[in-house]
Amino acid sequence: MYKRSHAWSFLAPAGLLLLVFSIIPAFAALFLSFTKYDVINPVEWVGLANYKALMSNSLFWQAMSNTVYYWILVTPALVVLPVFLAVLVNRGLAGVKVFRLIYYFPTLVSVVVTAFLWSWMFQSDGVLNYILSLLGAEPLKWLTNKHMVLPSLALVTVWQGLGYYMLFYLSGLQSVPEDLYEAADLDGAGFWRKQMVITFPMLRPVIFFVAVVSTMGAFKEFTLMMNMTKGGPLNASTTVVYLVFDEAFTKLHMGGASAMSFVLFLAIMLLTVINKRYLDRE
Amino acid sequence: MKKSKSMIVLLLTCMMLVMAACSSGGGDAAKSETSTEIKFWTISLSPTFDDYINGMVDTFEKDNPGVKVKWEDIPIDAVEQKTLTSSASGNLADVVNLNTEFLKKLASLGALANMDELAADVKGDFYEGVWTAGEYKGSTYALPWYLANDVVLYNKDLLKKAGFDTPPTTVDEAWEMTKVIKEKTGAYGYSLTTIRDELLYSGIPILNEDFTKAAFNVPQAVEIFAKYKERNKEGLIPEEILLDQAKPQEWYAQEKLAWWQTGPNLFRQVNDLAPAVYEKSDATSSFAYSTGQIPVNTMNIAVSEKSKNKDAAVKFAKFVTNAENQLQLSKLSSVLPSAKKAAEDTFFAAGKDSTDPVEKGRYLAVNQLEKSMDLLPPVENLADINRAINDEFKRMLSDDLDPADAVAAAEDAVNKLLQ
């Protein structure tokens, strides 16, 4: 027999964790964004000063533009490419399970390990430049050129995320009723026509989910920058979260770092609302 | 109902047990009212130096009845966060091991005790050039502990392939040889990580005398920047190392670098990574800058300003850094002592003819101690200042800018940080 108390007892443990480790710290950070706080000396209320300082902080705007650029590089690729992978591995071909595993494998590797592996591959004398040299091409400055660094890092994120998002699409595909395709066959629809009129519309909720999650992931990316480029060269790969970390834990400007976090929070929320408006329509 | 009552009783009993466990410290304190406990934090010395630290603590406790030292070792990656959060909650250890940059940051926040007032009697025991490591705006906030000054590990094979029998002796000579080594072997010679040290050890101060403005916009600095621009055009500067994307020791171990200028205590890392490369390596003295001064990295021992047992803490800080204890530490590792008397010990002479680069490096390094100078300006935002100068330097290299403009831009950036 269902009782309200049962629901609460199931919700309470996760709710408590969420409250203690996410909601309270988020509100504490919101409060800190209106203060000057260096961890050791008492908190000093400064009103909107941190937000005003942000407006004229060119590094913050560079970090914001880097973050948006990184998002543009990463999210469309992670929304579109895994659909094709999922369609591919959803077919009853021989050995398809091995392919599913191979595509999913990068997701299982920790981001730090991924960062080290790709750092080696991106080195001036690394394997990627070696391959280019075999093709007779000039070596590329994958991580040391300020125009190349974000596309290179985006490549790593896409490589690692493909398999993860493929799984969502795969489960979405498997819930598409087979008779829709059969009816389309009877109507003489080809492969692409079927994908356009059946697969993509039926996958719309999954597309929305992937768009939102990969957007949040792109806006919060930090580990790759921390381990591969330290935000460089010349801040070309400094994302907002990397800057928040630097501001908070290197410079001890907790107030300024909290203000940055909240501007980022608003940006992510805005994009989520836009995503919802355009992708989650019935 | 009965069930829920017994649950409440059980819960209360558990809470009481937890509270009792948490308050056991108070019980101990009540038991021995006369005992004083001081907390001592070190950076990444455990487990290798457990016996050494525990032995030192035992001796101190025996010599100072009633004082208990509680030692805790903190991994290097966690030390800044742990120190900061503990300072915020008033739980910073009484005696704490800090690197020079972070020490100045904490001193600027008022978290450390003034050692000019508390330990002036031991100032003469230390090398003058490293005593300054603990300075912040005219006062000293730490005693120097162990240190490492620069010596050079070089690959004899690579040098031979390039046609050299001996390693370079000056910075300029090292760059000249780099050109030949790069051409003949493909390896780099010099691995530049920061331009700041080149400025400092060429006699160009970063800040003015009262540390309120940048002071490095001088023709000599422009000349240094211009030289590097030229070297970069010739492909002699390993970009990944300059951009902190690769570690010099790893590149040295892969024979992509002909030499690595660092403290002899770090040479072992090459042996761990590539014993065969270590085997064909030798040590030589630091490349000479125009002033003859040698860069040095110092580990410091500070006392918390909020320590409730400051006298005991200062006494322990002096004990840890005294010549006898420092000599013992040097014998167990390859770090150097900051106490003059310890460095005079015959132990260091043993490495003179050694074929092991670590032992030889230690001998060479100890002989450089008189010339080893901590020249970092005593201000809190050292790391930001270093980054500002380096950023403009890197911008000059990548965007092919005028060296004079780059130095001026760096000066502007540093002045903004000092406002």
Question: Can you offer a commentary on this structure?
Answer:
Chain B: Pfam families: SBP_bac_8 (PF13416). Chain B: Keywords: Signal. The complex is a heterodimer of chains A (282) and B (419). Chain A is an all-alpha fold and 282 residues long. Chain A contains 13 helices and 2 strands. Chain A has helices at residues 4-32, 49-55, 58-89, 96-108, 111-122, 127-134, 149-174, 178-186, 191-202, 204-219, 223-229, 240-250, 254-279, and strands at residues 35-36, 44-45. In chain A, strands 1-2 form a two-stranded antiparallel ribbon. The longest helix of chain A has 32 residues, at 58-89. Chain B contains 21 helices and 11 strands. In chain B, the strands form 3 sheets. In chain B, strands 1, 2, 3, 6, 10 and 11 form a 6-stranded mixed beta sheet that branches. Chain B has a 3-stranded antiparallel beta sheet with strand order 8-7-9. In chain B, a hairpin with a 2-residue loop joins β4 and β5. Chain B is globular and about 65 Å long. In chain B, 45% of the residues are buried.
Q: Beta-strand percentage of chain A?
A: under 5%
Tell me, what's the shape of chain A?
globular
Following the backbone from N to C, one meets helices and strands of chain A in this order, namely: HEEHHHHHHHHHHHH
Number of separate strands of chain A: 2
Rg calculated over all Cα atoms of chain A = 23 Å
Greatest interface by residues involved:
A-B, 24 and 25 residues
In quaternary terms, these chains amount to heterodimer
Q: What is the tally of helical segments of chain A?
A: 13
Protein name (chain B): Sugar ABC transporter substrate-binding protein
Organism (chain B): Paenibacillus segetis
InterPro entries (chain B): Bact_solute-bd_prot1 (IPR050490), SBP (IPR006059)
Signal peptide (chain B): 1-20
